[in-house]
Amino acid sequence: MKKLIASALCVCMIAGMLVGCNSSTPADNSGDAQVETDKPADEPATTDDGGDEPAAPAGDVVLNVWAFTDEVPNMVKKYIDTHPDCGFTMKETIIATTDGAYQPALDQALAAGGADAPDIYAAEAAFILKYSQGDAYQFAMPYEDLGIDVAAATKAADIAQYTIDIGTNPDGKLVGLGYQATGGAFIYRRSIAKDVWGTDDPATVGEKIGSGSNSWDKFFEAAAELKAKGYGIVSGDGDIWHAVENSSDKGWIVDGKLTIDPKRENFLDLSKELKDKGYHNDTQDWSDAWFADMKGEGAQGILGFFGPAWLINYTLAPNCGGEKVGEGTYGDWAVCAPPIGFFWGGTWLLANKNTEKKDAVKQIIEWVTLDCTENGLQYMWANGTFNGEGGTKDCVGSGTVMGMSNGTLDFLGGQDMFEVFVPANQYANGTNLTQYDETINGFWREQVREYTAGNKTKEQAIADFKQNVADNLDVTVE
Predict the structure, then answer these.
(1) pLDDT of 95-118, one tens digit each?
(2) Cys-Cys crosslink for 432: which of 39, 152, 251, 360, Cβ 3.0 to 4.6 Å?
(3) Structural domains of the chain, ranges and CATH numbers in brackets
């Protein structure tokens, strides 16, 4: 994550590639696997080229890696390429989350066990709770059982607490960590801030929107000031949803019952105010209109978007209308702390408790999630050197690594994003999630849109939301 957004649209099912430890070919995502379109959507594709699939070198362990994009498998390839004596090869299985195909296939593979079962498997934020704490948590091996000193390693790497909380099973054992940190900031247009407030300084803009206040009051005061100058503060109500969702005290399900936390219920009022007062362009996230606002081509100029570093790298930058300073809105952006701490997205790595390849699994998990040296994945990812110099810089799970890295981006006008995102990761909350969030969030936001459009009363929107949950999930709804 978070090439997930782009990759999930174009990768359907790829599997069966073996990568040898002595390979001298740089990691890439081309491979020689074949996509078998006649297979059911939940069945992983396998290579079938007349028996020409590369064979693992004699004596080597074959590490089965399951993921929903090629990002994690490419990391394993990089490790193999840079550690020729690692003692293992990889068989990758990639099944996109499109149409819900990944989870059923993974569940079946974990339950079936055997030689083809995953040794390492990836789970993204939308469904990680199912595999770390929910219905499928029993398949995940605690990191300590791999021989990792969890307390010492996470402290040395300065891993944000929310990622640890999410990756901890009901027995209090850490079973998953990510390589990214996805704490959120407010990503804003410098030119609009200058026009309205006379400065684009992150500290001043942060003060204007109420950075760290844990309140939306100053944010809406800023929205009124922006509106007076002909601007919106965000593109649509979805741009504040993740901050609202993650700041709630309770998750959607508490003791088996649907619960609407007051802060999430207040999203109805916040959304209505944004729409009624024209503080946004009333777009939906991931729509063409949302992307148009990133280029500055919407109905009114939009100050900013709430999101993590991946939103900058994989969404704002490709949709800003340019590739260098002076083109489109490229270089006209900056980041400041948000009013309310939150995170959005991420990918966690888990180990199968039944794996017989503990040493290989440990090597990969440590290198990807906890290695704080310049030779670890985290350092390459933070500094944009994973595929050579000049690559995309990203926020990583280790605050220690970001502290020794250069997070300056031309896209942000030369600002070092790590100075904002490192503390943002510490503000995020990972204790109010449930394994049903992806489904319930969809129901909730649909009803919020119905209410703000004037199609339903608030009471009817809430009642219909509850009915949708009752009709689709095995939870108590009162």
Answers:
(1) 999 889 999 999 999 999 999 999
(2) 251
(3) 4-181+345-403 (3.40.190.10), 185-342+406-427 (3.40.190.10)
